[in-house]
Amino acid sequence: MKKSLLIMGMMMFILYGCYYDKASLVYPSTGINICDTTGVTYSNTITGILNANCYTCHSGTAAMGGGIKLDTYTGLQVYINNKQFLSSVMQDGSVPAMPLGGSKLSACDLNKIQAWINHGSPNN
Ligand code: HEC
Protein backbone atom coordinates (compact mmCIF):
# COMPACT_ATOMS: atom_id res chain seq x y z
CA MET A 1 0.00 0.00 0.00
CA LYS A 2 2.73 2.41 1.01
CA LYS A 3 4.71 1.39 -2.04
CA SER A 4 1.88 2.07 -4.49
CA LEU A 5 1.34 5.48 -2.93
CA LEU A 6 5.00 6.22 -3.40
CA ILE A 7 4.87 5.09 -7.02
CA MET A 8 1.77 7.20 -7.62
CA GLY A 9 3.47 10.14 -6.03
CA MET A 10 6.49 9.67 -8.24
CA MET A 11 4.35 9.38 -11.35
CA MET A 12 2.49 12.55 -10.47
CA PHE A 13 5.77 14.29 -9.93
CA ILE A 14 7.06 13.09 -13.29
CA LEU A 15 3.88 14.09 -15.10
CA TYR A 16 3.90 17.43 -13.37
CA GLY A 17 7.53 17.79 -14.41
CA CYS A 18 6.64 17.16 -18.05
CA TYR A 19 3.97 19.80 -18.03
CA TYR A 20 6.51 22.57 -17.58
CA ASP A 21 9.51 22.47 -19.82
CA LYS A 22 11.47 25.22 -18.21
CA ALA A 23 14.51 23.67 -16.55
CA SER A 24 14.10 25.76 -13.43
CA LEU A 25 10.57 24.44 -12.99
CA VAL A 26 11.32 20.85 -13.91
CA TYR A 27 14.30 20.81 -11.56
CA PRO A 28 13.23 23.08 -8.72
CA SER A 29 15.89 23.84 -6.17
CA THR A 30 13.73 22.47 -3.40
CA GLY A 31 16.03 19.58 -2.66
CA ILE A 32 14.17 17.18 -4.94
CA ASN A 33 16.63 16.44 -7.67
CA ILE A 34 16.06 14.46 -10.81
CA CYS A 35 19.37 13.04 -11.85
CA ASP A 36 19.43 10.87 -14.94
CA THR A 37 22.14 8.27 -14.50
CA THR A 38 21.04 6.13 -17.43
CA GLY A 39 23.23 6.20 -20.49
CA VAL A 40 26.29 7.43 -18.63
CA THR A 41 29.38 6.98 -20.81
CA TYR A 42 33.09 7.51 -20.35
CA SER A 43 33.54 9.51 -23.53
CA ASN A 44 30.66 11.84 -22.85
CA THR A 45 29.61 12.03 -19.21
CA ILE A 46 32.77 11.17 -17.32
CA THR A 47 35.26 13.11 -19.42
CA GLY A 48 32.80 16.02 -19.31
CA ILE A 49 32.83 16.08 -15.52
CA LEU A 50 36.61 15.64 -15.36
CA ASN A 51 37.19 18.27 -18.01
CA ALA A 52 35.21 20.80 -16.00
CA ASN A 53 36.74 19.96 -12.63
CA CYS A 54 39.98 18.02 -12.80
CA TYR A 55 41.97 18.33 -16.02
CA THR A 56 43.43 21.72 -15.10
CA CYS A 57 45.61 19.81 -12.63
CA HIS A 58 45.46 16.20 -13.80
CA SER A 59 46.20 16.23 -17.51
CA GLY A 60 48.97 16.66 -20.03
CA THR A 61 51.86 18.62 -18.62
CA ALA A 62 49.91 20.21 -15.77
CA ALA A 63 52.26 20.43 -12.80
CA MET A 64 49.59 21.06 -10.19
CA GLY A 65 48.24 17.52 -9.92
CA GLY A 66 51.15 15.84 -8.22
CA GLY A 67 51.95 13.97 -11.45
CA ILE A 68 48.59 12.20 -11.40
CA LYS A 69 47.10 12.02 -14.90
CA LEU A 70 43.39 11.40 -15.26
CA ASP A 71 42.95 12.52 -18.86
CA THR A 72 43.22 9.08 -20.42
CA TYR A 73 41.05 6.05 -19.84
CA THR A 74 44.05 3.96 -18.76
CA GLY A 75 45.33 6.70 -16.48
CA LEU A 76 41.98 7.02 -14.78
CA GLN A 77 41.61 3.22 -14.39
CA VAL A 78 44.61 3.15 -12.06
CA TYR A 79 42.77 5.39 -9.62
CA ILE A 80 39.49 3.59 -10.07
CA ASN A 81 41.13 0.26 -9.28
CA ASN A 82 42.86 1.55 -6.16
CA LYS A 83 39.57 3.23 -5.12
CA GLN A 84 41.22 6.63 -4.76
CA PHE A 85 39.22 8.24 -7.55
CA LEU A 86 35.87 7.57 -5.89
CA SER A 87 37.19 8.29 -2.39
CA SER A 88 38.64 11.62 -3.49
CA VAL A 89 35.45 12.91 -5.13
CA MET A 90 33.14 11.44 -2.47
CA GLN A 91 35.46 13.11 0.02
CA ASP A 92 35.30 10.19 2.42
CA GLY A 93 38.43 11.27 4.26
CA SER A 94 40.69 8.37 3.22
CA VAL A 95 42.55 10.48 0.60
CA PRO A 96 42.78 14.25 0.06
CA ALA A 97 39.42 15.63 -1.07
CA MET A 98 39.08 16.50 -4.77
CA PRO A 99 38.78 18.78 -6.60
CA LEU A 100 41.60 20.28 -4.55
CA GLY A 101 40.70 23.78 -3.42
CA GLY A 102 37.34 23.60 -5.19
CA SER A 103 33.86 22.75 -4.09
CA LYS A 104 32.63 19.19 -4.00
CA LEU A 105 31.10 17.85 -7.22
CA SER A 106 27.32 18.08 -7.42
CA ALA A 107 25.30 15.18 -6.07
CA CYS A 108 24.17 14.44 -9.61
CA ASP A 109 27.73 14.29 -10.97
CA LEU A 110 28.68 12.00 -8.11
CA ASN A 111 25.69 9.77 -8.85
CA LYS A 112 26.77 9.53 -12.47
CA ILE A 113 30.33 8.64 -11.52
CA GLN A 114 29.03 6.04 -9.09
CA ALA A 115 26.70 4.58 -11.73
CA TRP A 116 29.51 4.35 -14.28
CA ILE A 117 31.82 2.60 -11.78
CA ASN A 118 29.01 0.26 -10.73
CA HIS A 119 28.74 -0.78 -14.37
CA GLY A 120 32.43 -1.67 -14.37
CA SER A 121 33.68 1.73 -15.61
CA PRO A 122 33.47 0.76 -19.31
CA ASN A 123 35.46 2.57 -21.98
CA ASN A 124 32.33 3.56 -23.89
C1 HEC B 1 44.04 22.51 -8.13
C2 HEC B 1 44.58 21.27 -8.64
C3 HEC B 1 43.72 20.03 -8.56
C4 HEC B 1 42.45 19.84 -9.01
C5 HEC B 1 41.52 20.83 -9.68
C6 HEC B 1 42.14 18.44 -8.78
N1 HEC B 1 43.20 17.81 -8.17
FE1 HEC B 1 43.34 15.85 -7.69
N2 HEC B 1 45.17 16.15 -6.88
C7 HEC B 1 45.85 17.35 -6.86
C8 HEC B 1 47.10 17.17 -6.15
C9 HEC B 1 48.14 18.24 -5.89
C10 HEC B 1 47.14 15.81 -5.74
C11 HEC B 1 48.21 15.11 -4.93
C12 HEC B 1 47.74 15.22 -3.50
C13 HEC B 1 48.59 14.54 -2.54
O1 HEC B 1 49.19 13.51 -2.87
O2 HEC B 1 48.62 15.02 -1.41
C14 HEC B 1 45.92 15.20 -6.24
C15 HEC B 1 45.63 13.87 -6.04
C16 HEC B 1 44.53 13.24 -6.59
C17 HEC B 1 44.27 11.83 -6.54
C18 HEC B 1 45.13 10.78 -5.86
C19 HEC B 1 44.60 10.47 -4.51
C20 HEC B 1 44.68 11.63 -3.61
O3 HEC B 1 43.62 12.19 -3.30
O4 HEC B 1 45.81 12.01 -3.23
C21 HEC B 1 43.12 11.61 -7.19
C22 HEC B 1 42.41 10.27 -7.41
C23 HEC B 1 42.64 12.88 -7.66
N3 HEC B 1 43.52 13.86 -7.30
C24 HEC B 1 41.47 13.06 -8.36
C25 HEC B 1 40.97 14.30 -8.74
C26 HEC B 1 39.71 14.47 -9.38
C27 HEC B 1 38.77 13.34 -9.76
C28 HEC B 1 39.55 15.81 -9.58
C29 HEC B 1 38.35 16.51 -10.17
C30 HEC B 1 37.05 16.20 -9.56
C31 HEC B 1 40.73 16.47 -9.07
N4 HEC B 1 41.56 15.52 -8.56
C32 HEC B 1 40.96 17.83 -9.13
C33 HEC B 1 45.43 18.54 -7.43
C34 HEC B 1 44.20 18.75 -8.01
**End-to-end Cα distance:** 40 Å
How are helices and strands ordered from N to C?
HHHHHHH
Poorly predicted runs are: none
* Tertiary shape: elongated
Q: Biggest sheet: strands, sense, closure?
A: none
Helix content: 40-55%
Number of helices: 7
The total of beta strands comes to 0
Please indicate the count of domains.
Answer: 2
User: In percent, how much strand structure appears in the residues?
Assistant: under 5%
Q: Strand pairing plus helix content: what structural class? A: mainly alpha
Q: What ligands are attached or bound here?
A: heme C
User: Overall mean pLDDT score?
Assistant: 86
CA-based gyration radius: 17 Å
In short:
It contains seven helices and no strands.
List key phrases describing it.
0% strand, binds heme C, 53% helix, mainly alpha, 124 residues, 2 domains, elongated
